[in-house]
């Protein structure tokens, strides 16, 4: 009979290794000051992916609103006459891979992201019930295939007149 041996990492040997289940119950590894500094740099609007989509749409002559306060969820890009609302969501904050990440998050982060997901679903439902077409573009999609994302948006916009295209000068 062959006995299987497992080589332990230096952290496991020294007792400093923390399992995933234990990680869920420990506090933040950053000091409150450091966490505050990190969080203060996170943008809620006009993120890199949002700017990339907006610039691409503008370069193709589309006119649109951004962050419409009068609609649920404040769509990132809004084509009011076509009733198309575009949300460009961050993978982490809106829980794109939450089922995979769940075990790596503290309970507080998991609760925050779950609340974001519920709020997103509620806002999308309200918009759809009001006759809006809702498109969600994920951060990773925009970074990987901006032209494909723009094509998805343009498919839903009127082909005739292109919603008051901005004249090129």
From TrEMBL:
CDD domains: Vsr (cd00221). Residues 27-36 have a biased composition (Basic and acidic residues). One of its GO terms (biological process) is mismatch repair. Residues 1-45 are annotated as: Disordered. InterPro entries: DNA_mismatch_endonuc_vsr, Restrct_endonuc-II-like. It holds the Pfam family Vsr. Residues 7-19 have a biased composition (Polar residues). Keywords: DNA damage, DNA repair, Endonuclease, Hydrolase, Nuclease. It comes from the Bacteria. GO terms for molecular function: endonuclease activity; hydrolase activity. Belongs to the Vsr family. This is Very short patch repair endonuclease.
């Amino acid at each position: 009979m062959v006995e299987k041996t497992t080589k332990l990492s230096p952290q496991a040997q020294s007792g400093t290794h923390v399992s995933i289940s234990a990680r869920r119950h420990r506090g933040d590894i950053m000091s409150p000051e450091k966490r505050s500094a990190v969080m203060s740099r996170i943008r809620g609007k006009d993120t890199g992916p949002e700017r990339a989509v907006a610039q691409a749409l503008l370069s193709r002559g589309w006119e649109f609103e951004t962050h419409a306060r009068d609609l649920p969820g404040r769509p990132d890009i809004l084509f009011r006459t076509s009733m198309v609302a575009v949300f460009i969501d961050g993978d982490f904050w809106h829980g794109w891979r939450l089922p995979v990440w769940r075990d790596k998050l503290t309970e507080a982060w998991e609760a925050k992201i779950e609340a974001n997901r519920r709020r997103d679903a509620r806002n999308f439902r309200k918009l759809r019930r009001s006759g809006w077409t809702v498109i969600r573009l994920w951060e990773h999609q925009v970074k990987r295939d901006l032209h494909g994302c723009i094509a998805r948006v343009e498919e839903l916009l009127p082909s005739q007149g292109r919603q008051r295209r901005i004249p090129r000068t």
